[in-house]
Amino acid sequence: MKLTNLTALNEARAAGKSVLLFSDVERGAETLTIDGEGSGDIEITTALKEAGEKAHNEDRGRLVEIDNKRIFIQVFNPARRIVIVGAVHIAQPLVPMARLAGYAVTIVDPRGAWATPERFPDIEIDRRWPDEALEALEPDSRTAIVTLTHDPKLDDPALTVALRSDAFYIGALGGKKTAGKRVARLTEAGFGPADFARIRGPVGLDIGAISPAEIAVSIVGQITETLHRPERAAA
User: Fold this and answer.
1) How far apart are alpha carbons 134 and 136 in whole angstroms?
2) Is the pLDDT of residue 52 over 70?
3) 233 half-sphere exposure, CB direction, 13 A CA radius
């Protein structure tokens, strides 16, 4: 890797940005893109851009042959995170499942009786109010946020920060009736239809989940689909 690209790469990663390095296997030419923007020796054609987006979504490098050139695409994505608001029963199976799927997990809940190391061992627990905690955590495009308290006093402050962030996934526990009331409250807070479309509620894939563990499976599944197949998840 060229020194200038290495320097730019390190700076971008320190800032939590997504980086792709396109390298011509035979000629040694390089182009570095940061959050989709960049310049270099390799022209990023439509086909190469699509290949880069696929590599980014799959979170792994790939070798492609385009216009008689063999280009290796390296992916440098920020760490994946899930912020769970609400140290409730569903969160207990959700935490280990999310960790097994490769996410760093943070539990946010100011209620000391729920957010305890005994219930959530070896997990970062933030006991600040949800909006304060999320503002400090700075959700980015590699962050999923899930609200599980079913309490507007806790969920709404979290959703307010989440909707103003680049979080790639926002999920909220509750059925259609709960969602309708939530929309009404958030409308008063200044949000609109485009914002509400970002909220997955009821949270999780529709797999008929009943138990906390089954609901956790549906949530991890929906987050995974949104991360790797955003076009399908948005359909």
Assistant:
1) 5
2) yes
3) 23
Cβ atoms of residues 33 and 19 within 8 Å? yes
Is residue 108 helix, strand or coil? Answer: strand
CA 83 centroid distance within chain: 9
Do 162 and 145 meet the contact criterion of CB atoms below 8 Å apart?
yes
Sign of the torsion angle spanned by Cα atoms 227, 230, 232, 235: positive
Six-digit token string for 62: 């790939």
Give 5's contacts (C-beta < 8 A, 6+ positions apart): 21, 30, 32, 40
- The enclosing H or E element of 32 equals strand 30-34
Domain 81-233 falls under CATH 3.40.50.720: yes
Question: What are the structure tokens assigned to 214, written together?
Answer: 């089954």
Q: What pTM was computed for the model?
A: 0.80
Contacts of 215 (CB under 8 A, 6+ apart): 90, 94, 203, 204, 209
